[in-house]
Amino acid sequence: MTRPSSLRTHDLVGRARPRYRADALTVHRDPTALRRVTRALRGAGRRVNLVPTMGALHEGHRELMRRARGVPGATTVVSIFVNPRQFAPGEDFDRYPRAFEGDLEMCREEGVELVFAPEVEDVYPEGFATSVHPGPLGDDLEGAVRPGHFAGVLTVVAKLFAIAVPDVAFFGEKDYQQLTLIKRMVRDLDIDVHVVGVPTVRESDGLALSSRNAYLSDDERAAAVALSAALAAGQYAGEQGPAGVLDAARSVLDAEPRLQLDYLELRDDELGPAPEIGPARLLVAARAGKTRLIDNVAVSLVRRVD
User: Fold this and answer.
1) Per the annotation, where are the binding residues for (R)-pantoate?
2) Half-sphere exposure of 232 (CA within 13 A, CB side)
3) What CA–CA distances, in Å, run from 39 to 24, 114, 166, 174, 186?
4) Which segments are annotated as binding site for beta-alanine?
């Protein structure tokens, strides 16, 4: 089926048609309006890809867009919404970086067709009282440090899935626990969305890209590189077993006193207990000054042959 270059502004009886042009970026703030667009696109034979973000877009987000745009016969929706429900009192909701015009420019550069940028009241209207509970994993790792965080994440992602009705949704692996919980929610609730994890994009010195990197001073930025260095050390110690992986990573972190470690954990790739042999995930969280950073890397635990 041919790609629709646009959707007509009105139907045959004069009702407003959803706004969309294949050759231009269209911004929607109303959930119902966006849903009409994606429904019409699917009816015309298009697939719909979703890239959920909180804005302050960087090269990691650009990679998500490129993965989405690389799917043949698909239209890409990027959501830009700083979700208040995933911030605890005293966290950085009010000062979280916001750069909407720059975000739109990046979307245009990458050929994104649709941006969904609702206001808080559009997503959580008066009387909104429902949330998605993440289960036990939601209280572990990041959840132990940020109580309620993952209930807020899963709730907004479930809403975005209901609004955009995507075929595929793309998330970065930097937030690996978030990615794991979203995949579990989709599986447990039979949501008809394929969730794709995209490898972490890093700076040339290894630091994982994050919107919160903008908070770092030069000194804190220099200290933060120890996170990726520790993960690399652990990754290369896979032949030494789980204890060896953790020891190798911890030795790097112990040498950087400017970081305050929250946790360093080795788990299986579903974030259960680490296996003795097989695929695993090494995760770290620490503070550089007042900025909290997370990172992770895949580790292959193998039996050493002498």
Assistant:
1) 86, 178
2) 10
3) 19, 13, 10, 31, 20
4) 86
- From the list 10, 28, 61, 149, the catalytic residue is 61
Whether the CB-CB separation of 25 and 104 falls below 8 Å is answered with yes
Q: Do residues 245 and 192 share a domain?
A: no
Residue-wise pLDDT tens digits, 114-159: 999 999 999 999 999 999 999 999 999 999 999 999 999 999 999 9
Which residues are known binding-site members for ATP? 54-61, 172-175, 201, 209-212
Q: Is residue 18, in this structure, part of any structural domain at all? A: no
| Residue 35: Cβ-neighbour burial (10 angstroms; 0-12, 13-18, 19+) | middle
pLDDT single digits (tens) 98-108: 999 999 999 99
Catalytic residue list contains 61: yes
Q: Residue 176 maps to which CATH number?
A: 3.40.50.620
* Cβ pair 151, 85 in contact under 8 A: yes
Q: Are residues 69 and 123 in the same domain?
A: yes
